[in-house]
Every structure is written in C-alpha cells, then in structure tokens.
Write a structure and sequence with these properties.
This protein has helices spanning 3-36, 44-52, 60-69, 150-157, 169-172, 182-195, 203-215, 224-231, and strands at residues 77-85, 96-105, 111-112, 118-119, 122-123, 126-128, 138-140, 147-148, 174-180. It has 233 residues and is an alpha+beta fold. It has one domain. The strands form 3 sheets. A 4-stranded antiparallel beta sheet has the order 5-2-1-9. The protein has a 3-stranded antiparallel beta sheet with strand order 3-4-8. Helix 6 packs antiparallel against helix 7 and helix 7 runs antiparallel to helix 8.
Length: 233
C-alpha cells in the first residue's frame, strides 16, 4: 500500500470519527437538557456527572468514595478545609492559609445542583463555653448546609476546574481537605501535628486545631503531643 493510500484511509477514518464525536456531543447535550428539566437516570451521581462533568465518568469512583464515607456518620462532624499556599512563603510556618468550615451530618445522602456544587446533608453546629475558643467561648458554624463549589470539588477530585475551563489544578494553587466523621478528623490532626511540630503556629490556627479535637470528642488532656503543639505560647 502506498503512502497516498494510507493518507486517504486516515482521512476517511478521521471524517468518520468527527461524525461520531459530533453525534456523541449532541446526545450528551440532549441528556443534559432532559435531566435539567426534571428527568433522571435514577441515580443522582450519574445525573451530576452527566450535567456537570460532561459525562466524564473517570470521576465516578472518587465521588462514590465520598458517598460511601458518609454512611454511618450521622451526628458526626464534616469539615471542609481550604489550604492555599501563599506566594513567597513556601518554607515558613505561615506558608499556608487555612479556611475551616464545620457542620454536623444529619444524613448520608449527597445532593448536587447544576452549578457544579456538591451538597452535604448537614446542619449548623454550636458549642457554648468552649475552653480554647478565641471568640469568647462560643462557636457557631456559618451555614446550615455544607457545599463544595465547583472549584473546590475540582481541587478535591484533582481534575481541571469545571467552573473555569482550561485552568489547571496547578494554577489554582489550592488544596481542599474533606474530613468526614470523627476518625478522619483525628487522622488529619495527627498528620498535621507531625508536619508542624517544629513550626511556630498562630494563635488562631492553634485554636482551630484544638476545636477540631473537641468536635471529635477528645479533650486535649488526653492528647499530650497535640496539646503541647497547640497550647505552647
């Protein structure tokens, strides 16, 4: 077979592939429209992936993992932590700014909306006379419902930001931690304790860590290593 014949076969194959791609995109758009109008595949996460991830089912195992981690955790805490590295401070204790959002689980069913947000079954938390609070002894979570935005979810799943086409995870320069239940919370606290043992921590950061231990049902007196790290002035 000559190279010209090979070229012609390639052109024909590409034309057919382009036709199939266009057909698939049209079918996807039709599916999305039907789901957004109220129809369903019978599975919320499948609907979510079709509408908000353009049918990229590579994310399904990670979403199913989040769903499974919710089982049996009703009444426990769920925490979303945004960790953003500040430019120019990569080797210092102040290299990361943390934003903590706390809520209590009241169920185990994930939900979503068509803005790409993942919605957890939660309610507000309040603790009065909390010993280590820097806000006067009263702690309140801000929102009844914990949501992960499209950007946060993209970071958590380690994919391109579905709300900003073409912007890579590296350029977002942020990391999202999702802690579901008391055990995951304590595992994260233990890892952060080891990581920051020799670093100087702000009072606010130490207060947040102590608060998290308290939420998981631990008094700092039973966690001497963490207590020394967090309460050492």
């Amino acid at each position: 077979m000559s190279i010209q014949e090979d070229l012609q076969l390639w052109r024909e194959a590409k034309t057919e592939a382009d036709k199939q791609s266009t057909k698939a995109n049209n079918q996807l758009a039709s599916l999305q429209e039907r789901i957004k109008s109220g129809k369903t595949t019978g599975d919320k996460l499948t609907d979510f992936i079709i509408c908000c991830f353009s049918g990229n089912f590579e994310v399904e195992p990670k979403l199913r993992n989040i769903e499974s981690r919710l089982q049996g955790k009703t009444g426990q805490v769920v925490i979303c932590i945004d960790e953003t590295e500040e430019a120019g401070k990569k080797n210092s204790a102040e290299s990361s700014a943390y934003l903590f959002r706390y809520n209590k689980l009241i169920g185990a069913d994930l939900d979503f909306n068509f803005q790409g947000e993942l919605i957890f079954p939660t309610r507000k938390m309040q603790m009065v006379d909390y010993q280590y609070s820097i806000e006067g002894g009263i702690f309140n979570s801000i929102d009844d419902v914990l949501k992960l935005s499209a950007k946060q979810l993209s970071s958590l799943l380690e994919i391109r930001d579905i709300s900003r086409a073409g912007q890579s995870l590296e350029k977002q320069n942020a990391k999202v931690h999702l802690l579901i239940g008391d055990q995951e919370l304590m595992e994260w606290l233990n890892s952060i304790t080891a990581r920051m043992r020799d670093q100087e921590l702000s009072k606010h950061f130490r207060s947040q860590m102590a608060l998290m231990a308290h939420m998981a049902g631990h008094d700092l007196s039973t966690l001497p290593e963490l207590k020394n790290l967090l309460l050492d002035d």
